[in-house]
Amino acid sequence: MKKVLFLVFIASFLISCCAKSTIVADKTPSWDTFIYPEINFVNKAAGTEGWSIYNRIVPDPEKLIKESILGVVKTLYWSPDDTIPNIRKINYTVEDVKGISAKGGAPPEINIFYSSRWVEQSAKNGGDDKVLYETEGVLYHELVHGFQLEPQGIGSYGTNKTFFAFIEGMADAVRAQNNYFPASNRKQGGNWMDGYQTTGFFLQWLTSKDKDFLRKFNKSALEVIPWSFDGAVKHVLGEKYTTQELWDEYQESLKNN
């Protein structure tokens, strides 16, 4: 009888554990309902070496763009139910022009160009693997500009340095968070207001304080008005923190790198 009761107890215990595991699993946000924008891919660099390389390493541009979109929104938001800019169409072009890449337009339709000349330069520096790594990293950066939130009450990208630092810093923070920068790019110096990688690596480092820092920092654009770095940092991490103190700690952490 004791053996039967013991077996019943074990069975009940296993069922209970499985039920708890199911409940935990169900809390994981599903992105199955996310609605992807229409992708309008256009090659404007036909006949160039850069296009030939790009076409070889990216046989399905639409697939790559959609995979990158999902990576970006999952880094910036918790679920498809969050307040995500409603982009319904992305015009993506490969062009034989100077520069690297840029995003233009605003929801519901944005434009992104990618330079075939930059593809050629990347190939010279490291071959196809380098090109694909750089292409995906640049794509992440530009897609963040489409899907990120924007600070309020402080002007615009062209008129306010804080606005600029937030926009470009977040784009590179998301890129870094998804491992699309070499670790060697992270260096001491600069200021959190510099934007791009200097700000981006700092913001990514702050995920060591809160694993959801990038999501919360992005959302602070809706919640901290007028927006500021210090206001957002305190909003996300607590009143005891200042941007300067965190920056100093971050710089100290880089001394042995």
Polypeptide structure, described:
Helix 3 runs parallel beside helix 4 (116-147). The protein has helices spanning 2-26, 49-57, 61-76, 116-147, 161-177, 196-205, 213-223, 229-237, 243-253, and strands at residues 38-44, 89-95, 101-106, 109-115. The protein is α/β, with parallel strands linked by helices and 257 residues long. It has two domains: 38-147, no CATH class; 161-253, no CATH class. The termini are far apart. Residues 1-11 and 17-26 have low confidence and may be disordered. It is globular. It has a four-stranded mixed beta sheet.
Shape: globular
Strand order of the largest sheet: 1-2-4-3
Give the count of helical stretches: 9
Helix content: 40-55%
Catalogue the unreliable spans.
1-11, 17-26
Q: Termini, distance in Å?
A: 64 Å
Query: Secondary-structure element order, as H and E?
Result: HEHHEEEHHHHHH
Structural class: alpha/beta
Tell me what portion of residues adopts beta-strand conformation: 5-15%
Number of strands: 4
Most strands sheet:
4 strands, mixed
Rg estimate, integer Å: 22 Å
Taken together, the total number of domains comes to 2
User: What number is the mean pLDDT?
Assistant: 91
